[in-house]
Design goal:
The complex is a heterodimer of chains A (142) and B (277). By secondary structure, chain A is mainly alpha-helical. Chain A has helices spanning 6-9, 31-34, 39-43, 50-54, 56-72, 75-89, 101-107, 115-118, 131-139, and one strand spanning 128-129. Chain A has 9 helices and 1 strand. In chain A, helix 6 (75-89) packs antiparallel against helix 7 (101-107). The longest helix of chain A has 17 residues, at 56-72. The N and C termini of chain A lie far apart (38 Å). By secondary structure, chain B is of the alpha+beta class. Chain B has a domain at 45-233: 4-Layer Sandwich (Glutamine Phosphoribosylpyrophosphate, subunit 1, domain 1), CATH 3.60.20.10. In chain B, 28% of the residues lie in helices and 26% in strands. Chain B contains 5 helices and 13 strands. In chain B, strand 8 and strand 9 (150-156) form a beta hairpin. In chain B, helix 2 crosses helix 3 and helix 4 packs antiparallel against helix 5 (191-208). In chain B, 39% of the residues are buried. The A-B interface holds A 1-2, 33-34, 41, 45-50, 52-53, 56, 94-95, 111-122, 125-130, 133-134, 137, 142 and B 1-16, 19-20, 23, 101, 104-105, 108-109, 112, 124-125, 128-129, 132-134, 136. Strand 1 (128-129) of chain A pairs parallel with strand 1 of chain B. Chain B: It catalyses: Cleavage of peptide bonds with very broad specificity. Chain B: This is Proteasome subunit beta.
Chain lengths: 142, 277
């Protein structure tokens, strides 16, 4: 749930960056994979909610950890983030379905339903990524 | 279908990929004298009051889509939990989905904690959800319920504003309904008087507003339980279409009956053991 005291924690929010630059090798726009680009598309969001939704979870987490640090001291967010990191590492390979069970339990997502659970369910996604490309992207070789 | 340009699984939740395409399409359609279909709105009159024994909610039953009445028997009073109901005005799909999500979240909570949810909890969940989406979800809701702390009536606006009031009207017919409520509301009314007041308020909304009409639904929530009266009052311009066109069994009379038994004889019998280990 939302915590109050947003104003005092705004300094920790994720800064606004461009919208999905697809950089290929040599740091240039990857036309083959992501099509033609226009500066406007990359800098301006096409929908009012696009930016805030992209970073929503990150911002929430930062705010919550900030609050927790202020209330209980540094050890509390440190321990939690350590657990998050551990839970994030046990996923399956990128092109396979992972249940994210440990991560969901830690975040409390197993006790609530929101649009993330109903819309665009990754298990029902119609696009199947090429396994080799996805592995290369994940390992940073691309 | 394997596409080589998908490098990560798409994130769940809202997907904004088609927004610029839709905006471009909208521009093309306007130029070509065709209009995109409008989403169904509930263009409503909804009202609620707190009375001595509980909360009375009322709503009309018309849903409009542009200038056409899309649904004459729309149910605008949604179930949230056994002790809470919510009237919704605005875009019909948004109100239904939002109240569905709220209801699911509260059910999970009450299963987890073993307690009946309180109205303030529902209101806070709604407020968080609607504020997160900055008013893009067009749902104006009146939430009423009875819990251990008393009888409550809250309004939640589409941008996430809330208000706790003893009587309330929302929707396109709210000004007309609010006039009736302002005139005749008294604190701690009796149940029958409260029902009549809400009915009159919705009725004035129906008479004065194009977006409201047809029947009146009333929902009475008390500590003992919920009485969802649908319809409380039907309009005289009723829809005479039957929904079911099946004939009753026995409509056509049976003249003769002839039964021919099929004679089967066993030709071969084999037994195959199943391994049920």
């Amino acid at each position: 749930m939302n915590t109050r005291g947003l104003r005092s924690q705004l300094k920790d929010s994720v800064p606004v960056t461009g919208m999905g630059q697809q950089v290929g090798a040599y740091g240039v726009q990857d036309t083959l994979r992501s099509g033609f680009s226009s500066v406007k598309n990359e800098l301006l969001p096409s929908h009012a909610l696009e930016l805030s939704e992209k970073n929503f979870q990150l911002n929430q987490d930062k705010m919550n950890f900030s609050n927790l640090r202020n209330i209980q001291g540094l050890h509390a967010p440190l321990k939690l983030q350590m657990e998050y990191r551990a839970a994030r590492q046990i996923q399956r390979l990128p092109f396979l379905q992972s249940s994210h069970l440990a991560l969901d339990t830690l975040k409390g997502n197993d006790e609530s339903i929101s649009f993330e659970d109903i819309l665009n369910d990754p298990s029902q996604s119609e696009m199947v990524g090429e396994p080799h490309i996805m592995m290369e992207y994940k390992l940073g070789l691309m | 279908m394997a596409l080589s340009n998908v490098v990560e699984t798409p994130a769940s939740g809202f997907n904004f990929e088609n927004v610029s395409r839709n905006v471009a399409l909208e521009g093309l359609l306007e130029g070509g004298h065709t209009k995109a279909p409008k989403p169904m709105k509930t263009g409503t009159t909804i009202a609620g009051i707190v009375c001595k024994d509980g909360v009375v909610l009322g709503a009309d039953t018309r849903a409009t889509s542009g200038e056409v009445v899309a649904d004459k028997m729309c149910a605008k009073i949604h179930y949230i939990s056994p002790n809470m109901y919510c009237c919704g005005a605005g875009t019909a799909a948004d109100t239904e989905k939002t109240t569905d999500l709220l209801s699911s979240n509260l059910t999970i909570f009450s299963m987890n904690s073993g307690r009946n949810p309180r109205v303030v909890m529902a209101v806070n969940i709604l407020q968080d959800m609607l504020f997160r989406y900055r008013g893009q979800i067009g749902a104006s809701l009146i939430l009423g319920g009875v819990d251990c702390t008393g009888n409550h009536l809250y309004t939640v606006g589409p941008y996430g504003s809330i208000d706790n009031v003893p009587y309330l009207a929302m929707g396109s017919g709210d000004l007309a309904a609010l006039g009736i409520l302002e005139d005749r509301f008294k604190p701690n009314m009796e149940l029958e008087e409260a029902k009549q007041l809400v009915r009159d308020a919705i009725h004035s909304g129906i008479m004065s507003d194009l977006g409201s009409g047809n029947n009146i639904d009333i929902c009475v929530i008390t500590k003992q339980g919920v009485d969802y009266i649908r319809p409380y009052q039907e309009s005289e311009y009723k829809d005479k279409r039957q929904r079911r066109y099946k004939y009753r069994p026995g409509t056509t009379s049976i003249l003769t009956e002839k039964i021919v038994p099929l004679e089967l004889e066993v030709v071969q019998e084999t037994v195959q053991r199943m391994d049920t280990a």
